[in-house]
Amino acid sequence: MVLDDLKRFPRVFKVLLVSALIENMAFGLIIPFLAIYITADMGLENWAAGVVLAGYMVAGVPSMIFGGMLADKIGRRPVLLASLGLMSLTMMMYFFAYDFVTLLILVLADSFVGSMYMPAANAMIADVIKPVDRPRAYSALRVSWNVGIIFGPVMGAVVLVVYPIKVLFVFGALILAVAFFLNLVYIRETRPEKLESMRVTFRSVASVARDRPFLILCSLSAVFWFFFAQWMSVLPVYAYASLGVSPFEWALSFTLSAVMIVSLQLWVTSQVVRFRRSLVLAAGQLVAALGFGLIFLATDIYTLVGCIAVITIGEILYMSILSAVIADMAPEVKRGMYMGFSGLVQQLGVGFGFLFGMTLYGMLTDTTVIWLIISTIGAVPVVGYYFFAKMAGPSIDNPTPSSKGSTESIH
Questions:
Q1: pLDDT (tens digit, 0 to 9) for every residue of the chain, 411 residues total?
Q2: How many CB atoms lie within 10 A of CB 33?
Q3: Is residue 2 part of a domain?
Q4: For residue 283, what are the domain limits?
Q5: Which helix (H) or strand (E) holds 157?
Q6: Residue among 99, 107, 15 at smallest CA distance from 52
Q7: Which CATH number is 107's domain given?
Q8: How far is CA 108 from the centre of its chain?
Q9: Do residues 398 and 277 lie in contact, with contact meaning Cβ atoms separated by under 8 Å?
Q10: Coil, helix or strand for 198?
Q11: What is the number of alpha carbons within 13 Å of residue 166 lying toward its C-beta?
């Protein structure tokens, strides 16, 4: 089924898949070790690490909107190229960070240029893929991301055997440069012609927030990423300091999650498209919240891996349908802005999650309690998906093949 989809999907989408794989090798190379690098290698306090990680997310907030606006105004391709090229440069600059201030400045710059990428890429996919095929297309993109993440941590662990941890940033910069040249050579513009005469302003972006069902969905997804952010911030520090998990073991557990996504994402997506989307999103968030709660009982790397497996199942369920719902809700002439706005709200959730989690972790005497708190934060808002379904209506929550439209793919 996967190969059949790839054969009939346009070349632009295939190039995006390969580019995503390469780009996320750089992501997987850095992310599993970032919190450890900040606290153990640079010697920053937990609160300072929380500020740095939150700064990364907050700086990307205006960039999400800016990238979406540019994608609608000047085209998807220029935004993709600018983001990848500048990310390669800022990634290289991390090598020269020596204190909290320089690291924070680099994080803010890196986040701003990097966050422009996804609104343009998601809009490009919506441009070239029929609505009925979007769940599989966005799921295939997630699989490609996670293939990169599988190789990234393993590559990082190998590099750390020979080099200091900051050398990872050099390798990451080189990998991002490869993704830039791939997009430069093979990606062509897909922006619909009707957008060429449309004025894109901040007032038109603000109008997106008046789409109340869309705003509710964005807010709920921000809650999901708020508690999910603990996986990239508190959890590696907790695993290292409280469970005695080595950086190498943590990288392997991170890779396990990616392997699960690669193995299961497309199959799960093919199954859940038969159900109401609000139920799929709610189920995914509940399962992930359960996984975080179970970390309270984890005692070593093996029990922690079991918790990570539960969290990953929740993530697979949730992400199997989220991007397709957002794409279907976005008018054709505002795809970039809708993608940028949803990314903005989700980024705020992640940034606040980083700051909240790391600060709370530093305040608690019994750090295991944090996982019960995080699990509760993830589970309680699930009731909001009931109200989203009521407001969005069956055309969004439970679309039939005929109601999904027949937009032609661009080849």
A1: 555 656 677 888 888 888 888 888 887 787 767 777 777 777 777 777 778 877 776 777 778 778 878 888 888 899 999 999 999 999 898 888 778 888 888 888 888 888 888 888 888 888 888 877 888 888 888 788 778 777 787 788 788 888 888 888 899 899 999 999 999 988 888 887 765 545 555 566 667 777 888 888 988 998 888 888 888 788 888 888 888 888 778 777 877 887 888 888 888 988 888 888 999 999 999 999 999 999 999 988 899 999 999 999 999 999 888 888 888 888 777 777 787 788 778 878 887 887 888 888 888 888 899 999 999 988 888 899 999 988 888 888 877 554 444 333 333
A2: 24
A3: no
A4: 11-191+211-398
A5: helix 134-162
A6: 107
A7: 1.20.1250.20
A8: 17
A9: yes
A10: coil
A11: 14
Global confidence as pTM:
0.70
**Residue tagged 């986040």 (tokens):** 111
Residue type, 348: L
Calculate the alpha carbon distances from 306 to 263, 311, 313, 347, 386 in Å: 17, 9, 11, 27, 30
**Amino acid found at 337:** M
Residue 202 lies in a domain: no
Which residues are CB-neighbours of 106 under 8 A, at least 6 positions away? 90, 93, 94, 97
Instruction: Measure the CA angle with vertex 171, ends 169 and 172; round to 5°.
Output: 60
Q: Where are the beta strands (DSSP E) in 23-169?
A: none
Here the tokens at position 121 are 């890429």
Q: Does 18 map to a domain?
A: yes
The number of domains in the chain is 1
Where is 27: in which H helix or E strand?
Answer: helix 11-36
User: Quick check: 256 and 308 in contact, CB under 8 A?
Assistant: yes
CA distance 92 to 60: 19
- Percent of the residues in the chain that have a pLDDT greater than 70, as a whole number: 91
| Within a domain: 405 | no
